[in-house]
Amino acid sequence: MVWYSPRLRPSRRGGPIARSFQWLLRAALLIVLIEALAVGFGSARGASPKVAVSLGSALPAPLAASQGRSYFVDGSGGNDHWAGTKERPWRTVGKALRSVPLSGSTILLHGGTYPGEFRWSRAGNPLNPVTLRAYRTGRVHMTGVAGKDLPAIWVYRGSGLRVEGFDIHVGSADGIRIEDSHDIEIRRCNVHHTGAMGVLVVGTGKTAPTGNRNIQLWGNYFHDNGGAFVQQDPYWAKGTHSVYWGAVSDSGDGIDHTTVGGIIANNVFYDQPYGRQLQLGSQVDGTIVTNNTFNRAYQADPAAGDAVVFYGEGTRFDTRNVLVVNNIIVDNAHHGITGSGGNAVMQTNVVRNNLAWKNRDGNFEPLYNGQIRLFTLRSNITGVAPRFMRSSSGDFRLRSSSPAIGRSIPAYTPATDLLGHARKARPDLGALEHTSG
User: Fold this and answer.
1) pLDDT digits (tens, 9 = 90+) for 378-415
2) 3-state secondary structure of 167
3) Which CATH architecture has domain 70-412?
4) Where do the domains of the chain lie?
5) What are the φ and ψ backbone dihedral angles of 135, each rounded to 5 degrees?
């Protein structure tokens, strides 16, 4: 937060009364500034802020709700020669993505399994995006193309798309690939048992766009991803992650491939057998990672098995200005948050107000090779367990005795949690707000 006020100069003609008034005004401005800082940098012990702050006031807004017509897809009873109406649905997702109007359309998929690679390369309207989601309570599985290195969903030089509510498992490739795109939202998906990355956000372009902007992950589950190619190359035991955010095709080409802005919020990452749960970089700028729960990355390779990794390759575009805040980071084989590579620009990354516990090689390791600072540590919470209901069975709700309750910084906390429960004025850390029910 930057505060600016014109300089207050004592009047040479106003006499003592005017000068006294000016000093009082200065004092009042100072009090306002102190109270604002108390809100932004509230006590690590969860003391009540002196000034009310709206939940999520410092976060990027989700994409707007889609306001156009609805179109329908039925993988077993539809026909791509029909009109895509409720009574005459299309058969394939690809047909729908190619055909719907770009402003505000909603594509509703009947329950079932949809194999194939579905590409979005259209310029949608971020203020009235296209939404792709399941119809009613139907469970939709997206499985990619069997035996081929093709994701289930590939957003390539596209914009204005929301993907919501799918079960995505692609045994031989990435679940979702987002490439040189902007204003894309992935919400309420279960991304698991992919052969490579659960979600890959990558910049590859030689001409604009060369990177990504405002990619958003809200309220997803990520688990059991990666490892399909370990037999061919042991590198992939450490090189495939649940989310790889800000990858680049070539860090040495001198082109800015940065993934700019965006948010990773209210997600649960657990049981990651390969690589890391979340890798940030090599080129990221300004992403916020908030109110996620990270539990159990367990790859034995010492270059993997971490919850969150900051990565750089020594270029001027290295990962920078990232904020990791309000997360719970527990029971990982190596580090809670660490990283590698990089240069001095990476010290602009901030790790603040996270609860970290039982990460075997250390909760936070901000230095690479003891020299390069990959992130700056603020106040965090260590030495206490988060007290989940039952993490061994995937229940990451908080017990009433959890030290994570009431400890989240409100300005960086979404208004609702992963399950849609309203968060309290003094919200909880992690993806799931404690409820009395």
Assistant:
1) 999 999 999 999 999 999 999 999 999 999 999 999 99
2) strand
3) 3 Solenoid (2.160)
4) 13-42, 70-412
5) -85, 125
